[in-house]
Amino acid sequence: MFRHHRTDGRAATALLALLVLCFATACGAGTTDSAGSAGGTSPTVRIALGVDASYAPLYLAAERGMFTKAGLDVQLMKVEGGPAAAQAVTAGTAQISANADSTVLPQMVSNPRLRALGAFQSSGRYLKVVLGKGVISPRQIKTMGSIGGIGLYATHEYLSHHGIDPDSVKIQQSSPQEIPTMLQRGDIDGYILFDPWVSKGVEAGGHIAESIGDFDVTYVQWLIADQKWLKKNEKLAGKVFKVVAEADRLVTKDPHAAALAAHEQAQLPVAGTEKAIGEISFTARSLTSADVTTSRRITDFLTEQRLIKSAPDLDRALLRGWYDRHAG
């Protein structure tokens, strides 16, 4: 199904991940952890997450004090996004992270203790294909920018869907912040990302061509924890997830309020965030055998790309039914 394609920037991506991990470790030094908060009353749970509209339920929960009302001491730990969130859990500077399936699966290889507790959102519309000025057909594409994980996977699926051999296209991996600028300079012909980077690409002269669902790609966002911590804090993790599930319902009911919370918590633009929220299904649920099947397809792709040496033990890493037992 997938052909081997050697992407550029792999070394730079690895170095960036290492720097992010070191930064997360340094920032976490001396802070409280799940052993107890500074006041000694409630365990502190830090949730590592990125900065975009997909994390609206967590922003809303924090802004409205929903964790505190549930008797929880939860702190949001904002990182660059991508693998950095799961890496913070591996480093012990966060207890829980929010990650897309295709992003965290490679991390599960390097840290087999990572566990997916359940899903809290999914979408086939949030990530979009942005093509540069004058690029009106996929056949014109010679170079694409890409983030790792879901970005790289979706890029290959997009090209294959249009009958283009991914080996014939140069794929440059970079951070979301850099990619719209690369498009504006003409370094790349297109990319697949989420807002605000989609809007920034349009501002740079690009145009939206498709959403990932148009070529049968959907991402699922999971809550992740380390098994060593989870074993001692399963009830606590369930309470945290229960608040996230309630926040999911509130985001769906009042997207504008969620967008305001995202602005307060992460300085995201209100109008763009509200629009993006409408493209995401915010529903908390248990993982199922269907999630395992989808994850196996993604890990097969990553293995064939030589981005991982072997697949993680999906039956162990994906805790099917955990949400229903502990948070539902």
Helix/strand/pairing category: alpha/beta
Q: Provide the number of structural domains.
A: 2
> What is the count of β-strands?
10
Distance between the ends: 37 Å
> Shape from CA axes?
globular
Low-confidence stretches: 1-32, 34-40
Mean pLDDT: 88
What series of H and E elements makes up the topology?
HEHHEHEHEEEHEHEHEEHHHHHHH
CATH class of the largest domain reads Alpha Beta
How many distinct helices? Answer: 15
Radius of gyration: 19 Å
Please report which band the strand proportion falls in: under 5%, 5-15%, 15-25%, 25-35%, 35-45% or over 45%: 15-25%
Q: Indicate the percent of residues in helices.
A: 40-55%
Describe it.
- It is a single chain.
- Helix 2 (56-63) packs across helix 11 and helix 10 (234-253) crosses helix 11 (255-266).
- The longest helix is centred in the C-terminal third of the chain and has 20 residues, at 234-253.
- The protein folds into 2 domains: 23-123 and 219-294 and 308-326, D-Maltodextrin-Binding Protein, domain 2 (3-Layer(aba) Sandwich); 128-215, Periplasmic binding protein-like II (D-Maltodextrin-Binding Protein, domain 2, 3-Layer(aba) Sandwich), CATH 3.40.190.10.
- It has helices spanning 10-28, 56-63, 66-69, 84-91, 101-110, 150-161, 179-185, 197-203, 227-232, 234-253, 255-266, 270-277, 289-304, 314-317, 322-326, and strands at residues 44-49, 73-78, 96-100, 114-123, 128-131, 143-146, 170-173, 190-193, 207-211, 219-226.
- Helix content is 45%, strand content 17%.
- The model is unreliable at 1-32 and 34-40 (pLDDT under 50).
- Helix 6 links the parallel strand 6 (143-146) and strand 7 (170-173).
